[in-house]
Each structure stands twice: as C-alpha cells, then as structure tokens.
Design brief:
Helices cover 33% and strands 30% of the residues. It is of the alpha/beta class. It has one domain: Roll (Nuclear Transport Factor 2, Chain: A).
Length: 199
C-alpha cells in the first residue's frame, strides 16, 4: 500500500515522518501471519505474469501473493525482515541443501553467503502461479560477481563478471506464511559464470 505524504498538509515534515513511523506495521511474529496487506514500508516485487486457480477467493489470493512476494523481496534485497515476515515459525525446507540449517536460519545464512559473492544480486519474478495452498514462482537472478565466494584457502575473489541464472520455488502457505518450500536453482550455470567450474 502506497501513501502520499502530501495528503497530510497540516503536518510538518517531521510530523509526517512520525506519522509514517506510526502507520508502519511490524513484520514479525504472529502479527505477520494475520496481516494480509503489505505495510507502507514494504517494496515487494511484482510478478511479470500471474496464473490463478479458478475458485480461489480474493482473500486467499491476497494471502498467498503477499507471503510469496515478501519472500521474493527477501531474495531481491537481502533484507531479513522480509524473510521473517514471510516464513512461519515452523518453516521447513523440503529440498534442504547439504550444510544448510533447517528452518528460517537456513535461508538467512544462504542469502548472506550468496550476497558476499554477488552484493548487487537482484531477483525478478517471471511468473507466479497460485493453486490451492501453493505458490509456484519462476525467478530470474542477476548481478555481478564482485565479492568473495567461499572462505579460507578455497575462497575465490570475483572480477565483476555478470551473473544470470534461474530458479523455481514452490511454497506451501498457511495462515499467511510459508510453511514449506521446495526449490531448485540452476547452480551449474551460476558456478560456471563465476568461474568456479570449468566451461
């Protein structure tokens, strides 16, 4: 939801900023599950295309879309507040990569690791499909390998080369939050682009 501060002419600039702070909705805990409207502090990616199962009510569509778009915003920005709002306390990664922690800590750590290598990482939503309690997303990631991939003796420094790969996510959403995630990324293309694997 966008708010135009000029709609409050009686307030000074400081007063308007205080109003914005007062109107901002916290995105954590049980409140996030009940909140089916984005707060004024959220900037959520819009899918380029959307497919919706016939029969889903407007309320169901809004709840599914908001949880998914918050998680897309997390991958697009790296801001943890989006993941914490999108993911249920019982969140389970159903395709958990080796070495990644289960639960919400897994994606938070993965994002930090990835952004250490690709600081300007961006995620676009090519398509969002809503069916039942699921959202399927086709994601397109871009950026530049200008940071460091890995650590210690195996660390590889980037040279600014372009990164461009795709991923597909499936979310199960209940009570406005993602409880389960199945995902696949084109890691082969990514690692080749980074020069970690031979062409």
């Amino acid at each position: 939801m966008q708010r135009n501060l000029s709609a409050f002419p009686a307030f000074s600039t400081v007063g308007r900023l205080a109003l914005v702070a007062a109107l901002a909705v916290p995105l954590t805990g049980a409140h996030a599950a009940a909140n089916t409207t984005p707060s004024i502090t959220e900037v959520l990616p819009e899918p380029k295309a959307k497919v919706v199962e016939r029969g889903l009510s407007t309320k169901q569509q809004q709840a599914l879309a908001l949880a998914a778009r918050r998680y897309y915003a997390f991958w697009n920005t790296g801001e943890e507040r989006y993941a914490k709002a999108a993911l249920a306390p019982t969140f389970t990664d159903r395709t958990l990569p080796a070495g990644r922690a289960q639960g919400t800590e897994g994606p938070l750590a993965a994002s930090k690791f990835f952004r250490a290598a690709v600081p300007d990482l961006k995620a676009e939503v090519e398509e969002m499909i809503m069916v039942g309690d699921r959202v399927i997303g086709r994601l397109h990631f871009t950026g530049h390998f200008s940071g460091t991939f890995g650590s210690g003796a195996d660390a590889k420094s980037g040279d600014g080369r372009a990164i461009d790969f795709i991923a597909t996510d499936i979310y199960r959403i209940r009570s406005g939050q993602i409880t389960d995630n199945w995902h696949i990324e084109d890691n082969l293309t990514l690692l080749k682009q980074m020069g970690v694997l031979g062409q």
